[in-house]
Design a protein that fits this description.
About 0% of the residues lie in helices and about 80% in strands. The chain is an all-beta fold and about 140 residues long. The protein has one domain (about 1-139): Porin (Beta Barrel), CATH 2.40.160. It is elongated, with a radius of gyration of 15 Å.
């Protein structure tokens, strides 16, 4: 089993979308063989003046390893929920993400993870699109 935790940056791909520079992720995946299931949890916070948008995502799906060795690339396609809160109001939307990355071994049981994902969530007729970049440690 792989557990990865680290920093996540989210850029909104809508016109005048901005970014959420404060974020974190936790990923847990079965690591037996080239394919396995992954659970990805993330948090992002974006502030504008005195207003804060807090976004939580929970997604699951298949992850595919593309090699072994010191650098271990992977791809994943996940689906799940996005939960937003702003000024005491909340909203939940459904969607998913596709992307990948590489785990670079730095020791027997520790790797540095670099990753990028395209996310899209469907919210009352709107498509919320983001690019998530992450860096962290995999154990």
């Amino acid at each position: 089993m792989d557990v990865s935790v680290g920093y996540a940056f989210s850029a909104y791909l809508e016109e005048d979308g901005g970014s959420a520079p404060l974020g974190a992720y936790l990923s847990v995946a079965g690591a037996r063989g080239p394919a396995g299931l992954e659970l990805d949890l993330a948090y992002h916070r974006d502030t504008f003046e005195d207003i804060a948008l807090n976004t939580f995502t929970a997604q699951a799906g298949p992850r595919f390893r593309l090699g072994e060795g010191r650098a271990r690339p992977f791809l994943h396609v996940l689906g799940g929920l996005r939960y937003d809160t702003v000024e005491g109001k909340s909203n939940t939307s459904f969607g998913g993400m596709a992307g990948g990355g590489v785990d670079i071994k730095t020791g027997d049981r520790v790797s540095v993870r670099l990753g990028a994902d395209f996310q899209i969530f469907f919210d009352e007729g709107e498509n919320l699109k983001t690019l998530r970049l992450n860096v962290g440690f995999t154990f």
